[in-house]
Amino acid sequence: MPVATASDAYARDLRVVLVEDAMASVDPERHERALEELVAQYRQRRRDVDQVVHSGGDGGGASPSSGM
After folding, report:
1. DSSP category for residue 32
2. pLDDT tens-digit profile of 24-64?
3. Rounded distance between C-alpha atoms, residue 39 and residue 35, angstroms
4. Fewer Cβ in 10 A, N or C end of the chain?
5. Is the pLDDT of residue 2 over 70?
6. pTM of the predicted protein model
7. DSSP letter at 61?
8. Residue 24 neighbours by CB under 8 Å, 6+ apart
9. Residue 15, Cβ density class (10 Å: 0-12 exposed, 13-18 middle, ≥19 buried)
10. Phi, psi (deg, nearest 5) at residue 55
């Protein structure tokens, strides 16, 4: 469950990188809603696998404490 995993990581002051094509749902609409919720909650951009791979693995996002 991506939402619970992201929430747990964020609560532990870990950087949350939302790799949209590395998460799945049986329902595409629920998948989209979950991604939108995560983007809003953690103020991180959505990324795809290629973006993460070509950014050196960190996804290029800001850490939670950076005040992005």
Report:
1. H
2. 778 889 888 888 888 888 777 788 888 888 876 555 544 44
3. 6
4. N
5. no
6. 0.56
7. P
8. 31
9. middle
10. -100, 10
User: What is the Cβ-side half-sphere exposure of residue 9, based on CA atoms within 13 angstroms?
Assistant: 16
**What count of Cα atoms within 13 Å lies in the side-chain half-sphere of residue 55?**
14
Q: Which residue has the tokens 């693995």?
A: 57
Higher-scoring residue by pLDDT: 53, 65 = 53
Query: How far is Cα 2 from Cα 32, in angstroms, rounded to an integer?
Result: 12
Q: Which residues of 35-67 are buried (b: 16+ CB within 10 A; e: fewer)?
A: beebeeebebebbeeebbeeeeeebebeebeee
